[in-house]
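User: My advisor, Dr. K., asked me to get a structural model of this assembly before our group meeting. I'm new to this, so sorry if the format is off. These are the inputs:
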Amino acid sequence: MPLACGSVVAVNPNSTGTAPLSPTERSTIRRGAKRAVAERDALWALLDAGLVCHLSTVVGGAPLVLPTGYGRDGDTLYLHGSTGALSLRTAAQGIEVCVAVTHVDGIVYSRSAFHHSMNYRSAVIHGTAVVVTGAEQKTHGLRVLTEHLAPGSWEHSRQPNKKEVAATTVLALDLTEAAVKTRTGGPNDDEEDIAADTAWAGVLPLRTVWGEPEPQTAHIAVPPHIAGRAG
Amino acid sequence: MPLACGSVVAVNPNSTGTAPLSPTERSTIRRGAKRAVAERDALWALLDAGLVCHLSTVVGGAPLVLPTGYGRDGDTLYLHGSTGALSLRTAAQGIEVCVAVTHVDGIVYSRSAFHHSMNYRSAVIHGTAVVVTGAEQKTHGLRVLTEHLAPGSWEHSRQPNKKEVAATTVLALDLTEAAVKTRTGGPNDDEEDIAADTAWAGVLPLRTVWGEPEPQTAHIAVPPHIAGRAG
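Assistant: The format is fine. Below is the predicted structure of the whole assembly, which you can bring to the meeting.
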């Protein structure tokens, strides 16, 4: 039943990805090695499919975790927010961050309460977030962030002016030190419980879906990059 | 566009909830006070609607954040996992944790890239996680966790035996120090961009939906507590 508690397990030793992740001791998954996926492509896909990350920093010796948007360009994860934001002020000092992105794909109903679980995909990234400086570089980061949140919006909407760029802190985090963990498939019950056969076992899938666009503008048709997002 | 970056902000001074949250300096939302919701009921509803939290701890001076399941009973949040899990071993020593639960409700498309945002509900809880001891208390925690993940499963499936209870660490976290932040509604564009009226603005809602149950057991009908979950 625990999700990625203890997600951190030896990465798949049989991985043959051409651009493998580079786990260090802390990002090496210690439990559930069969769930570990070492390929960088999997990390990218997982990040690209998400909208929100959970950004963790240490503030005054205590942990702080906040949800925030992000965007990915190659092996760089961009994070941003108002320059007044506590978490970004902290990270701007060059301290370490830990970032998690998680997708829940279903509830795994087992014959025993103990083996209840979730199907999920999660990525945990460790690194030092650095503040992006220079208007051109910041604007690039903002473009990546905007296009992640709302693909097509960078060209469709008004792009940031100098004041807006200045008012935003953009952080860059290298994706080198990362661990990906997934669980798929049905329950893994004990033999005795399978033999007893007294409880339903299976998966209840969960997915996120887009609703109908809710326009604020009266006479502009919903553009294709928004109307088409639901696929 | 930033989500709850800097989510941490004066709680609603007009709150009249009978059981208000008790924000401290670090859990007091400093930005976007109008988004802060101080009522404890809102916290409970937000937690009850989620499946996964992000549990942050400090390990060797560095932040660690991992997704994990949880359950709520009154003002106690239960967390658990294998006793071998890194995050729970750390928390079991009585150090501080920070836990976030986030729901993304939609993408806010603005006339300017800068004002793009998300509609969301998020809770951030600070506290010291304590290890639940005693078989009865642990079993209660496991029941809360199971019923959160899979309502109805505690009675339907085989309940944990002594060995399983012993193999699981159950943590309890008090919900006293918590902050809730939400964003709802359409975009908040600058007047000039509204006047220009050149880009679509509105909200693309996002929601999670249950799929059809995928049975592993051949001849047991999907029980009502599972079949009825989709509402």
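One thing worth pointing out at the meeting: The radius of gyration of chain A is 20 Å.

User: Perfect, thanks a lot.
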